[in-house]
Amino acid sequence: MMEKSTLNHAVKIGLHFYGIRPYLSTTILFRLYWITALSTAQIFQYRYVIVNIDTDNFSEYMDGVSSAMASSLLFIKLAILWGNQKTFHEILQMMAADWQDYISNFGSHLMTSNAHLAHRSSRSIIGLQVVAVFFYTYGVLAANAGDPDRWEPYARELILKMDFPFNISTNSIYIGITVVQFVHLMLVACGITVINSLLVTLILHDCGQIDMLCEWLTKLFSRDASLSTNETTSQSTGKITMRSIIAKHQRIIKFSDNVEDVYTYIALMILLSDTLITCCLGFIIVTSIGTPNGGAILVKSVLFYITMNFEVFIYCFAGEYLSAKSKKIGNAAYDSLWYNTSIKNSRTILFVILRAQKRLTITSGKIVDLSLERFTSVVKASASYISVLLAMY
In this structure, what are the phi and psi dihedrals at residue 157, rounded to the nearest 5 degrees? Predict the structure, then answer.
């Protein structure tokens, strides 16, 4: 079945539920819900962080810090997307326009193949995060069941480390809080993955347009194309003209700039916060080895650690992939038979080649480009912080 949209159905639902889709009647209601839910949970989470700062169980404390920071990161992501709703609305309009024209466009098969890839990527990203939540929850419950000291309701570990203004004195209270925390954690995890999947989708859509532009350049300056100096006479090449080439290139650049405006500060917060979160989780994993409840701790922490690293990898790989694809425009224009065409077209194509020398990319806070090299630097920094914590511990 041919895809009609680059956005996966789960991502579309997520855009509505998390108030990211602008100018809808329900957007304000969903935003108010998430402001209330995240603010309330964050108060109890950071209350735990402050109250237990002198705790002897440093590993458990670091678990509370990492989960609190992960929720804060979602709050920041949503706030940035909400604040850039005008730019995001323009992105959605450009995507819709591209799909409306895809039937008459040469290279439309490239759009459908990228849409299939975007859908598979979104399902994989969301699925991995959901599995991580189940493992995290199972690890907490297994630790409670395996430790006789935690059999009383007030002594049991919660899924999310929170300090409430009341005591958990009965099983019913503990079960109620556990269910609410599990649902909240699942929704937070899905929100994180929806935003990450959205970035992958936008980058793949833009790269699909780049591939289409490269194919247009090949067809426009092919040996079989009988070109003339008049751009309106292009029957041998369908509707591909120099005007359409330049317009497509400008749309690709505009689309990339809009994605950059929306995600640049999200990427900055991810590089900063995920470095600290993976540091905390790495410390928990290392120190849990050989302990009585080490198995349960590893079950809940290892996949959490993998997903946080994977999030950084997604952003860095997206920037690297877009940069590599953007180089193809200049190469395709240069490798085409532009020198066999009219002087007017050959002069114009030189400007396309010149503009393509400036790579398209996603930056972190408009400071550094996102690339695989940046990902390795984040992993190295996290490992360095883990070694410092182990030395202090």
Answer: -80, 135
For residues 47 and 51, give the distance between their C-alpha atoms in angstroms, rounded to a whole number: 6
- Strands 363-364, 368-369: pairing is antiparallel
List the one residue out of 338, 353, 310 whose CA is nearest residue 200: 310
CA distances from 95 to 102, 122, 205, 206, 254 (A): 11, 17, 8, 9, 12
3-state secondary structure of 364: strand
Q: Which residues are 363's β-sheet partners? A: 369
The CA-based angle 304-306-312, given to 5 degrees, is: 110
Distance, in Å, from the CA atom of 263 to the CA atom of 116, rounded to the nearest integer, reads 23
**CA neighbor of 7 nearest in space, from 255, 248, 194:** 194
78 CB neighbour count, 10 Å cutoff:
22
Q: 252 with 139: CB under 8 angstroms?
A: no
Express each pLDDT in 138-189 by its tens digit.
888 888 887 677 777 777 888 888 988 888 888 888 899 999 999 999 999 9
